[in-house]
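Much of what follows relies on a compact textual record of a protein's fold. A complete example follows; check for yourself that the lines match position by position.
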Amino acid sequence: VPKVGFNPINRVEYVSINLDALQSLAEKFNLTAIDFATFKEHGLASKNDLIKVLGRGELKAKLEITAHAFSATAQKAIESAGGAIVKL
């Protein structure tokens, strides 16, 4: 039986959430801070997920976002909007 692919044992898999989803969440529920409990409460992640914020979309709200990882474009966009990031 031929080997088709390789799956690394120590791979870290993240749930990706884009900036446009964070912007709509902040507008809809009038939030200033988004943390892991907020992601769980609104169904974006489950209790064992690792969250990575990606930079697709535009962020206008000043938010304090807590997640496990951030892309470089997301970090730049959050800080340019006046927000802050907190890595878990």
About this structure: Helices lie at 19-29, 36-41, 72-80.
